[in-house]
């Protein structure tokens, strides 16, 4: 899916909920000095701004295929976002505290659609095992619950060509698409929690 700068800027500042936000220190690519920037994590995109109330982001890091790890750096509470490949850039960031650093590392590590896909597959596996256990415990006296089959979680598998074209042309369409999938992930998680608790007596 191709997104233009206008779409990204709108998405970065629209009212859709952020997965994490706060000030971090970002090391420059050419110069090793750190600059304080306001970061906003939405889905698998990490936006950064000059100031908290800036109207447009300075840049964005798409987190697919990255590894987030602690690193040695001049600044305390530093961590790195690394991508595979010899020429890929490594982003070095630093937080104000241990707690903030741990929060960012955790949320960034879970930001990719690949991670969400793995989570959904693991939940499906657990539900299937529970279904088999319920069937065995009932002695065949009742039908076991049907295994839960989640919809694919990756946007690339679910966005039609028409939707992709609309998103590329309209910033608000991309924002609505993100909100739609955020609600769906929340609903699937709630369904899973209810199934895990089992039927009410």
From TrEMBL:
One of its GO terms (biological process) is retrograde transport, endosome to Golgi. Gene3D superfamilies: Pleckstrin-homology domain (PH domain)/Phosphotyrosine-binding domain (PTB). InterPro entries: Boi1/Boi2-like, PH-like_dom_sf, PH_domain. It is found in: Early endosome; Recycling endosome; Golgi apparatus, trans-Golgi network; Cytoplasmic vesicle, Clathrin-coated vesicle. Residues 131-166 are annotated as: Disordered. Residues 17-113 form the PH domain. Keywords: Cytoplasmic vesicle, Endosome, Golgi apparatus, Phosphoprotein. GO terms for cellular component: clathrin-coated vesicle; cytosol; early endosome; recycling endosome; trans-Golgi network. SMART domains: PH. CDD domains: PH_Ses (cd13288). Plays a role in endocytic trafficking. Required for receptor recycling from endosomes, both to the trans-Golgi network and the plasma membrane. Belongs to the sesquipedalian family. This is Sesquipedalian. It comes from Phainopepla nitens (Phainopepla). The gene is Pheta1.
